Amino acid sequence: MLAYYNMKRAIIIFLFLIIGLISFLFYNSLKTPDIKTTDVPMVVADSINQTKPVETVATSTEPEPINIPEPVVPTTSVIVATSTKPAVVSVPKIIKMTVPFTSQAPYGEWSDLRQQNACEEVAAIMAMRWVNGENLTLQEAKDEIIAISDWEQEKYGFYQDTSARDTVDRIFVEYLAYQKVKLVNDITLEDIISELEKGNLVITPMNGQKLGNPFFTSPGPLEHMLIIIGYDYQTKEFIVNESGTKHGKDYRYAQTVLFNAIRDYPTGFHEPIIGNQKNMIVVWK
Questions:
Q1: Rounded to two decimals, what is the model's pTM?
Q2: Is the dihedral of CA 121, 266, 163, 278 positive or negative?
Q3: 20 to 30 A from 195, CA-CA: which of 57, 69, 88, 259?
């Protein structure tokens, strides 16, 4: 009897344990699981009850995708070049300086030997008027020619022919007191053009007979001097103030004709000319 009672009691206790366990499991199943999630965007209603997402900061740790732009297809637009190459410098077509002109006989008085032989003096006179930016009247030209010739006659005993060296030393430096002048010996054609490109005047002693100037009294002077004031690159001509004729303003000689005619001569009255030395006088401001 006691054994039956103990077994019944054990069964009842077991049933209570089973019921308690079931009740505990059922109760826990009703609780919300505590799962941590990312922030969810808030929703705000607009004036017509539509909703828009409010921008929030993403908490994802995954790397954002990189947007690679599509290649740009060339269009017909004009592209401005950005080259740093130096600009091409064009060669001037002509060089020409404004130099007052006079013939060595301003009023045509060629019988006056001082004027007939004044090519060196008048070249210096024109050059100095260019240096000083002054005009030159016929009377001023004649007066200066006579003054220089008379000074040469008094100091050196003659005025007729003056070499390039003595034209620099006597007429420019001593009489006119001008220092920006030099003699260059054994020149080339390019030497003359180079000085003109620098903006300088060039005076050359010549064999006037080789110039072939139609306005000269034939056959032309053996000792002559002229002033070169420019150069034409297209026609290959020198532009000169040719004092041997009243038509000599801006007169042109072919470069080969002028260069071949250059020949220095000795100081004196028709002294013998030895050799064919090509010299020039350069005058600058």
A1: 0.69
A2: positive
A3: 88
